[in-house]
Structures are given as structure tokens and as C-alpha cells.
Amino acid sequence: MSAPLIWIVFPGALGFLLLLLAGRPRLANGLAVGAAFLLAWAALLLPIDQPLTLGGATFKVAQSLFLLGRSLTLTPAQQPLLMGIWGVTFLWLVGALFARPHGLFAPTALFTIAFLTASFSVEPFLYAALMFELTALFAVPLLAPPGSRSRPAVLRFLAFMTIGMPFILFVGWMLAGVAASPGILVLAVRAGLLLGIGFVFLLGIFPFHSWMPMLAESANPYAAAFVLLMLPSAVGLFGLELLDRYAFLRQSEALFALLRSAGALMALVSGLFVGLERHLGRMLGFAVVLETGLSLLAIGLNQPIGFTLFFALLLPRAVSFLVWSGTLSNLQQEVGASLTLARARGLAGVYPLRSAGLLLAIFSLAGLPLLSGFPFRWLLGRELAADFPWAAAAALAGSLGLLLAGVRVIAALVSEPEVGTTAAGPLEGAPSVRISAAGDSTIWLFLIFGALGSLLVGFFPHWFWPFFVRLPLMFSQLGR
Amino acid sequence: MGLILVVTTALVMLATFNWRWRLGALGLQYLGVFLLVAQVWAVPLAAVKLLAGFMAAMVLAIGRANSRAEFDVRRWPAEWAFRLLAAALVFMTVASLAPRMLAVVPEMGATQAWAGLLLAGIGLLNLSFSTRTLPVLVSLLSLLAGFEVLYAVVEESTLVAGLLALVNLGIALAGSYLLDAEAPEAG
Question: Hey, which of A94, A182, A458, B84 has its CA 20 to 30 A from A148?
């Protein structure tokens, strides 16, 4: 029994088995929910690499699994991260009961997380690039189900992932040479350049970000948001691993300056675009770009608090994207059309709860006080303002852009539908308000938990902070 | 032989609009890749790339044959000339990059450097010209093939060979899936 077997092989295998149940999505989803819960619980309670006595028998969960001359290793220090990953996956799988994405969501979610877990456990760790590529490939049926119009977006997504992968793999070989001869500057510069190009494609750094809003617009929002949340986060984690492993990267002030510049540019550009955007799905895509920019800014601080903030920003991001994409997915299925601001006119009168959920998520990501996004963004802004005020200003501008987008969404939701049209489906006369109906209990539960979650993190961030402080300790050099 | 094969097939894929020629060239291209990789790897391990490549081409061919997409439209000769001129630019770029590559990786042979860079460069060029599913995915496979030729010199790992083969097959399967969903386009 080994940790990779439990948290990588088992969910991956279960994901493939659940493909057979794609025609029965609720059953597949239920099984996946159970598995995610068990895996999160196991990450919390099951000790890795320590003897465990159960009913007289003693066994140990080994930390490594050897495969074709290489290994997958999950250490005890990574258990909090595993618990976080599977906890978030559990929430997203539960949310799928409300969002009703394609039947492939549950199996795809499981083997996506399995591959991404493998990405930070594989040795040599630079093979993670292959895991990212495989994750993108396996996500294709989920992002482009039959009858969808997301083929161009999916092709672009695949293209950028495929272009980024070779750079990371090749750098793995170059970094060995740099580590052996750290004084040779030209080697370090070449390696850094190739690494930078690889990350530009994998993270969707401006101007190679176009696949994110395209995907959020044309694919099912819930499925797209899940991929857009997990993949860049895993790539960011991989970036932290690189910093931890290689001293010449960690000691390069130029690298951190570049990270701050890239993060600021992404925040600024995404804020501009999201504020002017007219499609609710594309707004979500640009919000992902903004969040990626904030993560880069957090790493660019080059301080222990910055690395802690990188992890801390993941929680409000996960909750807010869950509520935003879930609500959007549900609304689009109710309305029967892709939601632009024009189509969303008057929806608040017909679907008040869902509209409230949508707005809650947008304003939470914008960093409105008392919501989940505020405390950690405020902390990031404060840390940036001390030494890099221009970066703090860019982050603030990005948040203001998202705030503006939220205000425009409010204006659309509460305004009257245009004469002769309705955003709420084929209705005659004034649409009636749907507060509650048979089968709406899932809506209530989803939105109540989403709102509670957001307010809980917003009101009591100090409850969660000790957990985030522990996460960078899984690295040997960073955060110490 | 490997270099001639990969360059010829890459140019055929760039110039042709016929999906049968394109996929046939892809299959032959993987034969060239095998010949190049076999110079540094054990033949059984290098054969993995050949088999994976053939399977990928076959999967795409079956997918395209069953697709509802319209057949490719004949293009004016000017487009062929433009593409080949663009390929000439790639040649010139590779001519300046190849010696630097050889300086960075002394173990690499000149044929491998040229073949890998040309394949990757023409694949990238083809990708930039393509919007439809099959050309995009064939270009990605070509780009990856070029990288694999270069990477084979510095890394000989069974796991990497297996994972890269899996990536190639995954791209082909994704392509087959997307081809099935591709709607007919206006001529």
C-alpha cells in the first residue's frame, strides 16, 4: 500500500470505471462524491510513512510508488495539500448536482485531479509537464461534448498546452547542467528563457490567455471553470517547486521582477477586458486571468507571506468559481441560451436566488469587504504596496474592473427585458417570479452553502490562516 | 534518410490540402523520426515512437473518414507559393539555430538538430495557418515529433517514452472525437 496508490491510482482508475456510467450521471456523480470525501478524509487522518496498527495488524502507507524506472512520491508534508485538493474536488462534485454539467464531469474530475496530483509527486518532477498535457487531453470530451460549439476554444487550449510542454521538458535537462555549473551565466539565462516561454503558454500569461475566455464562453461554464481552476493552480504549484529546487532561480531578483511584471500586466489587462465584456462566461474567463495574475504577484513578493498568500488565494477562488460557474451553468440551461448581458436582462425577477448567487461570486472575486475574496487580497495589496506600489495599483485596477463588471451584471439582471424578447425563455406576458418549485431544494442548498462559505471566509479568515501557513512548509526552502 | 523523410513529409503536410496525403505524410514522418531516434536509443525503445505515430495517424484517418466535415477545397497556386516561401523562412531560421543547438548539446548529431528544429518549425508554421481540426492536430503532432527527435538525445527514459507515446495517442483520440463533432464549413 502506498500513498500514490491511494491518491493517484485509485481515483484515476475509478474515473475510468465511472466512464461506463456516463449515461447515469447522478449515480456516477454520487460515487465520485463519496470517493472524493474518503480521499480528503484519508489525507486528514491516514499517516504516510508511519506504522499504523489496525485490529492487531500493522501496516504502513509508503510514500513512494515506483513505475518504469521513475517514482511517484507523496510525503507527509504534502498531506495538508492533498486534503485541500480533495476537499475542493468534493465541493465541486457536490455542486455538479446543481450545475448539471455533462455526464462526463464526475469521471473527468477524478482523473484530472489524479493526473494533477501525479504532477507534483513524479520524480523527476519536470515530468509534470507531461501530466498537464495529459490532463488537457482527457478534459477534451468534457469541454466539447457532442453538439457543443466549443471546438475552436478546445483546439486553442490544446495547442497552447502542447506548445508549452516541450519547453518545460527540455529545461529539465538544461537545469541539471546549470545546477552542476551555477557560475556559467549563459546556461542559466538560456534555461530561464525556455522556462519562461513554457510557463507563458501553460499559465496563459498575456497575450496567450485567449483560450480562457473562449473556453468559458463556449463550453459548459461549470466544466470549464473546473479545468480553469485546477490546471493553472497546479502549474503555479509546479512553479513553486522549481523555485524550491533550484537556488539560482530562488536567488534571481530578475526572475521575481519578471513575475511581478507579468502578474501586474495580467491583472491590469484582465480588469480592463472584464469591465467591458458583455458575455457572462467570458467574464468568468477573464476573472481566471485576473486570479492567475494575483497568484504571480503573490509569488513575486519573494517572501514567506507571499508563498502563504499563493495558497490562501486558492480558497476564495475555488468557492467563488464554484458558485459563479454553477449558477451560470444552471441559468443557461434554464434560459436555453448562452448568457450575454442582453439575454440576462430581467433574470433577477424570474430567478432571484440564482441571480443573487451569481452576484455574490462576482463581488467575492472582486474583493468586496466581508466576502471571501477580501481578506487575502487586502493582505496581498498591503504587502505589495510596501515595496512595489505600482504592482499593488495594477492588482487594485484589476479588482475594480471586475467590480465594474459586477455592477453591469446587476444593471442587466434587474432591468426590464427588451420589448418582444425575454431572457427567461418562451413566456407570454410578464414573467412570474420563481422563488421555489419542486426540485429547487438543490438550488437552495447550493446557494446557502455557497453564501455561507463565502461569508465564513470573509468574516473569519484567521480560522483558515494557520492551515495556509503550513502549506509552504512542504517545500524545503520556500516559506522558511 | 531520416532527415530527408521528415523534411519532405513536413513540406507535403504544409502544402497539401488533401487529408489522405496529409495523414500519409504523417505516417511516413514517424518513420523518419524512428530512424533519427534509433541513432541514440535502443531500437525497441525507438520503435515505440514509430508504433505510436502510426496508430495516431490511423486513428485520425478513421476519424476523418467518418467525419461529416466537407472535403477540402482546392486552393489557388498562390497559396502554395506563400506557404513554401514561409517554409523557406523557417529553413533560414533553423540554419542559424542549428549550430547553436549543437554547441549547447554536444551529444547531438547535425541531422538530428536539423531534423528536429525543421520539424518543430514547420509544424508551428502549419499550426499558425490552420483553423480546422485535422490540420491543427496534425501540426501539433508534427511539432511534438520534432521535439521528440531533439529530446531523445538528452533523455532516454522508458517512462518518458511511454508518456510521450500516450500524449501522441491522446492527441489523435481527441482529434478523432472532435472530428466527429465538426460541423460542415462553408466552402
Answer: A94
A384-442 tens-digit pLDDT? 999 999 999 999 999 999 999 999 999 999 988 765 554 444 444 444 444 444 356 77
Residue among A70, A137, A138 with most chain B CBs within 10 A, to mutate: A137
Distance CA A383, CA A298 (A): 9
A69, A133, A173 ranked by CB distance to B154: nearest: A173
- Phi/psi for A370 (5° steps) reads 80, -10
B68-77 pLDDT, tens digit each: 666 556 566 7
- 3-state DSSP assignment of residue A238: helix
Is the preceding peptide bond at B135 cis, omega within 30 degrees of 0? no
Cell numbers that stand for B13 in this block: 503536410
Check CB contact under 8 Å for B171 and A169: no
| Residue A336 in grid coordinates | 436555453
For B38-74, how does the pLDDT look when each residue is reduced to its tens digit (9 = 90+)?
988 888 888 999 999 999 999 999 888 877 666 556 5
**By the CB < 8 Å criterion, does A66 face chain B?**
no
All residues of chain A having their beta carbon less than 8 Å from the beta carbon of residue B177 are: 140-141, 144
> B160: nearest CA in chain A?
A127
d(CA A193, CA A22): 43
Within 10 Å of residue B79's Cβ, how many Cβ atoms?
Answer: 12
C-alpha cell of A110?
A: 477524478
Distance, first Cα to last Cα, chain A: 32
- With CB atoms and an 8 Å threshold, state whether B178 touches A154: yes
Any B CB within 8 A of A60 CB = no
- Select the residue from B178, B179, B180, B182 to test the A interface by mutation, using most A Cβ atoms within 10 A: B178
Record: contact A173-B160, CB cut-off 8 A: no
B177·A173 Cβ contact <8 A: no
Nearest CA to A280 out of A105, A442, A410 is that of: A410
Report d(CA A253, CA A261) in Å as an integer: 12
Residues of B in contact with A173 (CB under 8 A): 151, 154-155
Length of chain A measured in residues: 480
Whether the CA torsion B110, B112, B117, B118 is positive or negative: it is: positive
**Chain B residues whose beta carbon lies within 8 Å of the beta carbon of residue A144:** 177-178, 181
Minimum distance, in Å, between the CA of residue B8 and any CA atom of chain A: 22
Q: How many helices (H) and strands (E) does chain A have?
A: 22, 5
Chain A CB within 8 Å of residue B127 CB: yes
A415 touching B, CB under 8 A?
A: no
Mean pLDDT of chain A: 86
Contacts 24+ apart (CB under 8 A), B143-146: B143/A162, B143/A163, B143/A166, B143/B119, B144/A162, B144/A166, B144/B168, B144/B171, B145/B6, B145/B29, B145/B30, B145/B33, B145/B53, B145/B119, B146/B6, B146/B115, B146/B116, B146/B117, B146/B118, B146/B119, B146/B120, B146/B121, B146/B122
Contact A327, A354 (CB under 8 A): yes
pTM of this structure: 0.90
**pLDDT, mean of residues A199-210:** 91
The pLDDT tens digits for A23-80 are 888 888 899 999 999 999 999 888 888 777 777 777 788 888 887 777 888 888 888 8
The residue extents of the domains of chain A are 1-123, 221-235+244-474
Residues of A in contact with B137 (CB under 8 A): 155, 158
Angle of the A79-99 helix axis to the A105-119 helix axis, nearest 10 = 160
Query: Predicted ipTM?
Result: 0.90
Count the Cβ atoms, other than its own, within 10 Å of residue B42: 10
